[in-house]
């Protein structure tokens, strides 16, 4: 089965377009060429969001200095071949036809950062959504399968730079970009923006997801999860929980991501079993008292619900864990008398003694941070 790949030639290396095109035509079927112009005011933000990271100054200078126009070439591989290769993200299984050619171009033109290429069709899917606003499936449905006779010029920033037209467009984009699973059942929220309620999302990497989503952090503290996106000129709150934040057991979090499924309305959700038990966990462990809306959902008495939750967690080797977000409540009556971290214990201290202990703890952390680990 064929696969789509792409090459991006950043502004400082556009003199190599012809040579790269000739090489691509020898190995693949070139589909389309685009000259894409980013706006100057969003220049750095576009780079950050395209790569999902804060790039070094050296990296950006090797890509572009005076111009923000670059060349995108989309091509088709009729005979994909997969093998393991060392990448910037570690050892990965990649389409070696894509990966090895990208390495060849970088070596030939003496650049580490000036040429970008997808490693497989999954990455092509992500990059097309970022650069053109289309996923691979929709792109294949619209392109003309013929030799390109001209270069299409486009003036657009990375998708979502000014927010989102709708939640449908937001999830269409994120489905191609970064893995996630909704932590709550929002069967009706696509057509009706949630008012007063956060959209709770489990992600692999909180900062990367937020950067791709163009989400702004609205809470203080590195472990807080509150973000906002703009949808149809309205602010929509997101709670971005990530694998490893101890919102619940990390093994359970990974299982939720591995068994996620695409909802008919176009967003990823957990399996029904995980969703129900996580809702029960949240109601019993993260709340002082079970809210009425949960009582209406769970019909059994509280003691029976606790036994059901404990049996589920025991059978799956999941454990009660203290959330890294110390502002999130942990109910010891239902979650067990686990030992809290020092920041959480200090947070409960009141009065002058509490103030002094918190101040000393922060000063000690600051001194350790400046000195560095032994």
Give the tags.
single chain, 374 residues, alpha+beta, Alpha-Beta Plaits, Beta Polymerase, domain 2, 3 domains, five-stranded mixed beta sheet
Task: Walk me through this protein's architecture.
The structure is a single chain. With 374 residues, the protein is α+β, with helices and mostly antiparallel strands. It folds into three domains: 3-155, Nucleoside diphosphate kinase-like domain (Alpha-Beta Plaits, 2-Layer Sandwich); 167-335, Beta Polymerase, domain 2 (2-Layer Sandwich); 342-371, no CATH class. Helix content is 41%, strand content 20%. The protein has 15 helices and 14 strands. The protein has helices at residues 17-27, 43-51, 57-63, 96-108, 121-132, 136-142, 167-177, 206-213, 250-258, 272-285, 292-297, 302-315, 332-335, 342-347, 351-371, and strands at 3-9, 29-37, 69-77, 82-87, 90-95, 115-117, 151-155, 180-182, 199-203, 216-217, 226-231, 234-242, 261-262, 268-269. The strands form four sheets. The protein has a five-stranded mixed beta sheet with strand order 6-1-3-2-7, sandwiched between helices. A hairpin with a 2-residue loop joins strand 11 (226-231) and strand 12. Mean pLDDT is 89; it is low at 368-374.
């Amino acid at each position: 089965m064929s696969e789509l790949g792409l090459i991006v030639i950043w502004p400082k290396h556009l003199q190599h377009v012809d040579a790269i095109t000739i090489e691509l035509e020898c190995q693949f079927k070139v589909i389309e060429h685009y000259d894409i112009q980013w706006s100057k005011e969003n220049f750095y933000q576009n780079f950050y969001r395209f790569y999902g990271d804060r790039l070094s100054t050296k990296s950006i200078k090797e890509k572009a200095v005076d111009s923000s126009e670059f060349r995108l070439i989309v091509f088709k591989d009729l005979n994909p071949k997969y093998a393991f290769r060392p990448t910037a993200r570690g050892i990965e299984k990649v389409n070696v036809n894509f990966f090895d050619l990208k390495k060849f171009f970088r070596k030939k033109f003496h650049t580490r950062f000036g040429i970008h290429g997808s490693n497989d069709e999954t990455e092509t899917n992500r990059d097309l959504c970022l650069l053109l606003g289309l996923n691979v499936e929709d792109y294949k449905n619209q392109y003309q399968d013929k030799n390109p006779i001209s270069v299409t010029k486009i003036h657009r920033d990375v998708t979502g730079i000014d927010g989102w037209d709708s939640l449908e467009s937001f999830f269409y984009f994120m489905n191609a970009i970064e893995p996630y699973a909704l932590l709550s059942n929002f069967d009706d929220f696509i057509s009706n923006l949630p008012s007063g309620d956060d959209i709770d999302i489990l992600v692999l990497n909180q900062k990367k997801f937020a950067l791709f989503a163009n989400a702004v952090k609205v809470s203080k503290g590195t472990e807080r999860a509150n973000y906002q996106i703009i949808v149809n000129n309205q602010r929509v709150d997101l709670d971005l929980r990530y694998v490893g934040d101890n919102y619940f057991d990390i093994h359970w979090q990974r299982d939720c991501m591995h068994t996620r499924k695409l909802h008919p309305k176009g967003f990823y959700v957990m399996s029904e079993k995980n969703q129900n038990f996580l809702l029960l966990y949240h109601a019993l462990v993260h709340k002082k008292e079970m809210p009425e809306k949960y009582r209406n959902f769970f019909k059994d008495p509280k003691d029976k619900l606790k036994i059901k939750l404990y049996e589920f967690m025991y059978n799956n080797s999941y454990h009660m864990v203290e959330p890294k977000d110390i502002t999130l409540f942990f109910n010891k009556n239902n979650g067990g008398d686990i030992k809290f971290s020092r920041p959480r214990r200090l947070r409960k201290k009141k009065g002058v003694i509490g103030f002094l202990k918190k101040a000393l703890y922060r000063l000690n952390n600051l001194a350790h941070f400046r000195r560095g680990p032994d």
